[in-house]
Amino acid sequence: MILGKAVAHSLLTKSISSTSTCLVNWLAISSCGRKAASTAAALKPATPVDVTEASAPLPASLLTEKDMQRLRFQRNIGVSAHIDSGKTTLTERVLFYTGRIRDIHEVRGRDSVGAKMDSMDLEREKGITIQSAATFCDWEATNPEDGTKQKYAINIIDTPGHVDFTIEVERALRVLDGAVLVLCAVAGVQSQTTTVDRQMRRYGVPRISFVNKMDRPGANPWRIVSQIRTKLRIPAAAVQVPIGVEDGFKGVVDLVNWRAIYNEGIKGSDVVVSQDIPESVLELAKEKRTELIEQLAEVDEEIGELFLNDEVPTNAQINDAIRRSTIGLKFSPVFMGSAIKNTAVQPLLDGVCAYLPNPSESEVLAHDTNLPAGSPQVPLAPAADAHLVGLAFKLEEGKYGQLTYMRVYQGTLKRGNIIYNARTGKKVKVPRLVRMHSNEMEDVDSVGPGEICAMFGVECSSGDTFTDGSTSYSMTSMFVPEPVISLAIKANGIETPNFSRALNRFQKEDPTFRVHMDRDSKETIISGMGELHLEIYVERMRREYNVDCTTGKPRVAFRETITQRAEFNYTHKKQTGGAGQFAKVVGYIEPMERDPETGKDVEFENIVMGASIPTNFIPAVEKGFYEALEKGSLSGNIICGCRLVLKEGGFHAVDSSELAFRLATIGAFREAYRVARPVILEPIMTVEVVAPVEFQSQVIGSLNTRRGTIVDSEVRDDEFTAIAEVALNEMFGYSNQLRGSTQGKGEFTMEYKTHQPVLPSLQKELEEAYRRTLPASTKK
Ligand SMILES: Nc1nc2c(ncn2[C@@H]2O[C@H](COP(=O)(O)OP(=O)(O)OP(=O)(O)O)[C@@H](O)[C@H]2O)c(=O)[nH]1
Ligand SMILES: [Mg+2]
User: Is 85 assigned a ligand-binding role in the annotation?
Assistant: First the structure.
């Protein structure tokens, strides 16, 4: 689990403590403008969805029969789950069975080749996925009723499980139509399963569940099905029953089509289907098929009706109901298998084709920027002849320029086309278009709607919308969580341009990785989602840019915020010979809630009427506000959760300048800030500890001494799991302590829950420590 991987392969210099402040993730739940029309009860985003957004019908009428022919057999899916559950191992099998790779290589396997989707050296060495990787394949799905085959084109994105790389999951799910949620048959629903579940809800992504590792001792798919229902609160039922357990696991019973499926031949490539259900599982299979129908009756009207009338649904009716309710976000069918033992992967692929939506079945919405703000979003249709709309969801800087991953939502993207960036208005020619196969690419001339591709040599930011210039559509970007940990970084020896080149590149590619210069100490500070996240970048600087760095101790990214509104009326005036400086700003600052769609929680609002401030000075006021937010006066940390409203002001025909307005705003903000009752916030983490039962009291004791609140605990066989909420600041050194107190048998994972005000004693300590770093003249 997380720490097994993260700590054992610590890459960094000794100056970084070996604590495992793994990750963190903002778990705000919302709908991000996609498929907002979900009818789902079960998987609905927790935040109410704007029904006006949802009311616009999908313009399916725009789709031609040719479009439908193509789309019907197209799937875009993500593989997401808790770390180590076997996503990459599973994807490797999928690529092998679909003929995309000639042989199977294991994640951190002995043959030193490594799995296809973990192409980075660091991923292969550490055995973890760091970046999501995209690929595509064709799968000949078998129609269980008549045995005919039908070819499906599937785009797949394998995502990392480690929470430090959560942005990779976030952006993949933003653009995918469906997902496979992988669970370990022993560990079941783990902390990041819950995180991924929330991300899927945020973007309304239907999922099928895959209980992997059925070969492991203690594998129990029924416990996992019940955890999906209770912990993830999704109606779910198994659509398969295992044949054989643990080492003897050799196939599954397909409960829907009532047949046994085995894997034989080299690496399980021969799928053997038998109508004979083995005696040993016959009773169980009957019982589970009934359970499947009962569950479907709860979420699907047709099955519900049949159930009430005591009628038995046909296989086709069950199939249709699973498809309807899965796409409707009301249900998750549960498959099971063992990726490593090459068992039951092909039936899962059939399931992807049968139950996950094609691009025309996902409702996709965009803002029409020609309409007034707040207008309902408009639906897009994946028609090849429609105006082009695509979303750039991921960037990679390479030797040959920027590689931009794009999801084309409507229209056709062609090489050589001129496309427009909806955010900047800039037009650009598409010099090269490729389809990705992990780190390899295949050149293509055009890409149709509902497809995923990549463009070379197109400058843009992550989350930009591209059009053909004839629509005013713009899509919502993805949710970007805030960093929680930071450290100072310095190049050893003389700093070469590669130092900033590397940092600029990483910052551009990864919106959760931030770099800034501390104005007082002049140190370069990098911030990210966890220690591993930062370690990886420091190591990549060494390997890819030949820059060796020394890093400071990881620090918790404290923040400051205000708790009440405060008015300001401030005049900045200076007369020191020559031209003077004059600017007056009037307005207020007030607390602001985080936007669940974008994660944004600071805002500048200009409501100046008349000409008390000439409009050309307004950007300087905004700039001053954002500059003031960089350093709170309590502890020097960034200020969040704050809106500044500029109401009026004053200027002087000669002495007013941008500089004067910027300084006036900074001065005004500082004064108002003191009145707005500022507080220091700290990240609170959800910590999950798993250890043998005999160490339970030591583990609980150590969480208590770290001011942790135990929120859940579970004992299973001879192992127990404790879930606690603990301040990140209290977690330094925990991995060593846990190892020591459990004879190395305890493991923990950690993820961000929320920011909360620190205790008054800590606030005092942080304020004093900050004051000591200030020059004497500024201390108060
Ligand atoms: N017993 C067993 N082990 C498996 C199975 N599938 C994968 N593993 C092992 O689980 C470990 C993790 O596999 P990965 O495929 O890297 O898991 P992942 O989910 O991609 O991990 P991250 O991307 O780092 O989150 C490896 O040691 C695999 O060999 C399985 O079906 N059974
Ligand atoms: Mg992986």
Answer: yes
CATH topology for 681-762 is Alpha-Beta Plaits (3.30.70)
The ligand that comes nearest to the alpha carbon of residue 83 is 1
Q: Note the ligand closest to the C-alpha atom of 108.
A: 1
Q: Is 88 annotated as contributing to ligand binding?
A: yes
- Do 101 and 179 meet the contact criterion of CB atoms below 8 Å apart? no
Distance 205 CA to ligand 2 centre (A): 20
Which atom of ligand 1 sits closest to the CA of residue 89?
15
Element (H, E) at 299: helix 279-299
Mean pLDDT for each consecutive 10-residue tract of the chain (780 residues)? 34 29 27 34 40 41 84 94 92 91 78 82 87 92 80 94 90 94 93 88 94 94 94 94 91 95 91 93 96 96 94 94 95 96 95 94 88 84 92 85 92 93 90 89 92 90 90 85 89 91 92 86 89 92 93 90 96 80 95 81 91 92 94 92 95 89 96 96 91 92 93 84 92 84 84 89 92 70
Indicate whether residue 160 lines ligand 1 (CB < 6 A). Answer: yes
> Which of 746, 504, 583, 691 has the alpha carbon at shortest distance from 20?
746
Q: Which ligand is the nearest neighbour of the Cα of 161? A: 1
Domain 5-56+71-361 has CATH 3.40.630.30: no
> 168 CB less than 6 Å from ligand 1?
no
What is the rounded CA–CA span in Å between residue 719 and residue 250?
27
Grouping H, G, I as helix, E, B as strand and the rest as coil, residue 667 is helix
351 in a known ligand binding site? no
Distance CA 93, CA 88 (A): 9
162 appears as a binding residue in the annotation = yes
CATH (one of 2.120.10.90, 3.40.50.720, 3.30.420.40, 2.40.30.10) for 365-474: 2.40.30.10
CA angle 651, 655, 659 (to 5 degrees): 85
Q: Which is the closest atom of ligand 1 to the Cα of 338?
A: 31
